[in-house]
Inverse folding.
C-alpha cells in the first residue's frame, strides 16, 4: 500500500521499539469505500513540525484537505488572476489573510491540534480543511478506503486502541468520530456521510464564464 509523504516521514522518525503493530483498516459508508478520510491516534511520540502550502488556483483550494503536525507553518499562494481573502473562524485556528494576490507576506502557524475549516470571503464556494494532529500516527485512506497505520505500543489499552476518523462530509465535520479497534486484526469501520455536494450548480457555471473577472 502506498503511503503519503507525511506518513512516511513520521514512520521513519519513530524509534524501532515503537513500530510494533501495523493497523490495517478499511473505511466504508453506505455508498462503499471512503477515500480521503483522515485516521489518526491520540498520543504517541510528538511529531516534528513541517512547512506546507495550500494554493488557490481556478478559484479552488489545493489540496482541499491538508494533514499537518501541530506547530507547522502553511503558506497560501494565490495563483489566480483575481484577489482572494482567506479566513478561518475555527477554534483551533482563527485568522484572516485579507485581499491579496501572489503570496501573503507571512505564513500561518497552526499551533493547536484540531479541525480548521478555510473559506474565501470573496468566493463563497471555496472550502478547504487543515487537520492539525499531535501524533506521528496519521494517514489518509486510499481509493479503496484502506490505510496501514503504525501503532506505537504505548497507545494500546487492554489490547485495543481508540482511533480518530475525520472526513469533510461527516455529519459534524468540526470534530472527528472515535472508534475502538483491535490493532492486531484487520478492522472494518463504517461511518455516516452527507451526500456529495453538487459541483456543477448554475452559479458555478456562471462563475466559470467569468473566471477572469
Amino acid at each position: 500500500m502506498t503511503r503519503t509523504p507525511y506518513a512516511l516521514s513520521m514512520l521513519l522518525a519513530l524509534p524501532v521499539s515503537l513500530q510494533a503493530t501495523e493497523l490495517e483498516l478499511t473505511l466504508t459508508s453506505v455508498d462503499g469505500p471512503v477515500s480521503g478520510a483522515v485516521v489518526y491516534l491520540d498520543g504517541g511520540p510528538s511529531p516534528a513540525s513541517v512547512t506546507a502550502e495550500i494554493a488557490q488556483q481556478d478559484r479552488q483550494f489545493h489540496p482541499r484537505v491538508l494533514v499537518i503536525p501541530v506547530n507547522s507553518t502553511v503558506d497560501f499562494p494565490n495563483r489566480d488572476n483575481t484577489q482572494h481573502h482567506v479566513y478561518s473562524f475555527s477554534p483551533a485556528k482563527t485568522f484572516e489573510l485579507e485581499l491579496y494576490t501572489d503570496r501573503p507576506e507571512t505564513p500561518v502557524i497552526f499551533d493547536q491540534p484540531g479541525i480548521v475549516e478555510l473559506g474565501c470571503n470573496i468566493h463563497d464556494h471555496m472550502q478547504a480543511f487543515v487537520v492539525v494532529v499531535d501524533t506521528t500516527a496519521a494517514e489518509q485512506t486510499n481509493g479503496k478506503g484502506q490505510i496501514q497505520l503504525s501503532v506505537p505500543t504505548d497507545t494500546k489499552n487492554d489490547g485495543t486502541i481508540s482511533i480518530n476518523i475525520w472526513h469533510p462530509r461527516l455529519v459534524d465535520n468540526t470534530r472527528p468520530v472515535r472508534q475502538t479497534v483491535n490493532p492486531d486484526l484487520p478492522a472494518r469501520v463504517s461511518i455516516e456521510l452527507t451526500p456529495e455536494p453538487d459541483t456543477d450548480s448554475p452559479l458555478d457555471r456562471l462563475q466559470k464564464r467569468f473566471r477572469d473577472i
